[in-house]
Structure formats: structure tokens, C-alpha cells
């Protein structure tokens, strides 16, 4: 047996096993390196090979070890969700994309040591420190971290199992550490002494599940949609988008949002004179199919407003239209508009990070029995989400100093935005109706051509002037056929755009109206009597000081005043906590609204793509007609 064969036999018998076995590969070179996982070093057998100057064998062994599994656990961009690609962009934006940095990510993932070593041994074999990052390997490592964080074994088998439903790892701490440069932090000297009660890493968990820490950073301008406020340098609170909202969780949230399909049931229910329409709702993620009435939707909206008055509860379509107190007839066009409005409402509910997990919403989408009967049988206690809720730990946190100014600016501009979006909806609806009318005219034109071709047969006498005149009728039928084809394309395009850009514009309009209604409810419900309580406390404190100077007086009066002071202080604390919770909720809703405005870009992108598609189809139709009508005589020789 030659030297190369002996090396191969030795390799097969060595403890260097495949990644699936979970065995760790020892590192040679230093005495204390045997306990470290393999990375940027060599195994004992590799050192032996290199010392014998057999680099060809080393390359062969690495290929034998990694080649058979590499295609199995490396993920392409088409296999991974958009969140993985966003992670790669964010993590390597300010850092050189090397495997040394990627190892830091694995070590800071919060996994147990044995899981970290297992992932490193599996994914970093034969990797040198200065090698550039391979996106496919990065995606695989991120997927393994997510699998391990979910309590599963990080192995190739699990990677194959979850290939079509890859988990989203929790890496927000890593992103915060490497995305925020030291220049982005403001000196502690800018923080007032009143903030000393806050710990340096105090964290607020917003009700939506998104996270914010009170680390001081440079201000960020959150400009999108109708919101346009420039934050000055004193805005040390800096509610930046990646602080209020966990970027990864948010991207995963939008990608995993449910989609509710709704259509009108063919059969009406009720008595002979009072029949009502039913709506069939199908949930894509839950796979549930339920039947609901308009009154059920209205009940759900009222419950959401009662429970979440300081959130943007979606808008409901009207049950019927009235002019000067006279109700208009409910024709098919009205019923179609109403069911589309209900579709916008329920889909906006399931997209919202709070509403989507509310028990009432879940019951609305899953209870298969008649919902009115379920409401009668179920005892429901619905109250304000901030009722009797005291958040003492959050009161020390400072809010944006110009928060009231921000709200006032939004209130001033929101009516203007609603007005313009309403006009956009009306104009787009008019354009689509004009296109539908054009399609009808195309059909009438084709019909007239057919009638004309049939009526001119006795007029044409073949052979008198030219035999080619017999092709006139045939050419007329060809023109009629292509006009009918154009009519079909125009109708189909109008239908697609009506369900696409028109509904998207109406959704944007409804969102703005929901924001306006949220502010109106805030003005009515966000009231307190803190100034009055403070005055009463000061008065009682003065009385108590006066009583203390008169020691001979009864101590009962002193106890009553002290109890009154304590009671008023508790009321102030409760009202301050409620005000803070409401403002935090309002700010959270505004940021959620702004981030959701990214849908506007997709709106117009889809619109342009549909326009291009049908324009090309129409152009091809007219080119085909041009070729086929060449036989029609067009002049005399």
C-alpha cells in the first residue's frame, strides 16, 4: 500500500467524523487549543499531512469530508425568507464580511456551549479567518441558530425538515451591538440628573412585543406618509425605528401575516321580508372557514374600540347609504363595495400586531357556529387595556420633549392627507370605469362590423372589378375578432386594477381615517385631574405642618390628613402611569403606521407591472390584426 492509500485508511479510522455525528474536531497547535472547537486551525491529522508535504491529499480529504454534504445544508437565496437577506445586509453593513465576525454571531446567539461548538464544527470546517463570507453558508448558519433556539437539534436533518419553513433567529442584541457605532451614542453628560433613577440598560417591552432600550443615541427622523417631524439634537430619547421595533421580528411579522379571503354567500338567510347577506371568511394560515353577518363585523369593531381606544382600529364600510334621510336601494354594486370594505377591515385587523392575537379576533375567525349565538352564550368582560394598569418602572423614562408638538403637526396635516387620498380613490375609480366603458364600446364596434359584413354581401359582385374585393368581408370579420380580443384584455385589466391599486389606495385612506379617529378618541378619553390633586396635596401638607406645631391637638385629624395625602398620591401615580401608557401606545401606533407605508412602493410597482403586461398583450393583438388584414384591398391600380 502506497503512502497516499495509507493516509486515506488512517483518515477513515481517525476520530474526525462527519458533522452529523456531533463529534468535535480537535485543534492542534497549542496546548490549550484542544478544548476549542475547530476554526481557523488544523486538525492533528492535517498537521501530520502538512508536515509530510502532501497538500494534494489534504485537499482530497477536505473534499471528501465537505463535498458530499455541502449541497445538502447550504441554502440559496430562493430557499430563505427575506428576513435572512435583511440580516446579511444589516450585520455586514459596517463590518468586513469575514468568517471571524460570523463566528462572533454564533457565539453571541445565546445558545449553550455545546450547541455553539456543534454549529461551528459543522459549518466552519476548512475555513480560514480572512475568507470572505459566502451568503449560502451564512443563511445555513442563521437557520441552524434558529432551529437550536427553538429547542431542536441543529443538524442537517433538521435543516432539511425546516427548509420550506425556516425559523427566524433572535439576534436583536447582536444587531444592536454591531449596528450602533460609538459615534451614534451621546455622552452621558447630556443626560439630566433626573434620569439617574434609570439603569443603563433598562428595557421597555411595548405591548406589541417590540423592544426599546433607553440607550442614548443620535436623533432619527421618522418621515413617511403624512408624518413629517424633524427631531432636534435634544431629542436624546431617540425612538429610532430599530429600537421601538425589532427589525427582524417586524420583517417576520409582515411576512407571516394572515390573509383573509372573503366573499358573499349565495344563499340569504332570515325571514321572508328581512333577509340578510352572509359572508364566508377563509383564513389562509389557520385554514378555518366561517360564516359571518355584517352585524358580527360591527360588533367586533365596537369591541376593539372599547378595548383599544388608543390604537388605530380599522374602518368599517357603512351598512347602507342614505341621502337626506332616505335610504337608497342595496343593489349588487353596493353589496360588492361593502364586501370589499369588510375585506379591508378584517385583513387590517389580522395584520395589526396587537389585534391579531386578541381572543375576540381569534374567536371571530375560528368559531364555526353562528356567531350571534356564541356571543349570547359567552360571558365577556371588555374594558380599556390600560384600566387599573400601573407601570411604575416606566415612569422614570423620558418621552420626546416635543411629543405634543409632533401630535399637533400630525393633526394639522391628516385631514389634508385624507382629502387627497379620497380624491385619488375617486379618480382611479373613474379611470377604471372609463376603461370598462371603452371595453364596452370595443364590443359594440365589433358587433357593428359583423352586422355590416353580413349586410354588404349582396352589394359586392365578384369578378366585375377585381376578385380581391371578395376578401373585404373576410377582413371585416378579422377586424371584429381582434376588437373583441382587445375588449377582453381591457375588461380583464380593469378588473385586476380594481382589485389591486384601487383597493390598496382605499386601504391607505382607511388607515389615515383610523389614525384620525384614534386621535379623536384620545382627546375625549385621555383626561386627568392631576393639577387638582397636586393642589389638594399641597393644601393638606400645609394643614399637616400646622397640626404638627400644635401637639396638644387630637392625632385622629392628623391621621385622616395623612391618609388623604397618600390616597391622592396613589391617584396621581395611577393617572401618570395611564398617561404614559397612552402616549407610548400612540407613539407605537404611529411608528407601526409609518413602517407599514412601505406597502405604497409595492402598490405602484404592481400597478406598473400590470399596465406593462396588458399593454404588451394589446400591442401583440394589433400586430396580429395588421398581418391578417393585408389581403383587404386598399387602392386601385
TrEMBL record:
What molecular function terms (GO) are annotated for this protein? phosphatidylinositol-3-phosphate binding
Compartments reported by the entry? Cytoplasm; Membrane
Per UniProt, residues of the PX domain are 257-371
A Pfam family found in this protein is: PX
Where, if anywhere, are coiled coils annotated? none
Q: Which GO terms describe its cellular component?
A: cytosol; endosome; membrane
> Would the keyword Phosphoprotein be found if you checked this record's keyword annotation?
no
Sorted UniProt keywords: Cytoplasm, Membrane, Protein transport, Transport
Q: What is this protein called?
A: Sorting nexin MVP1
Organism equals Pneumocystis carinii (strain B80)
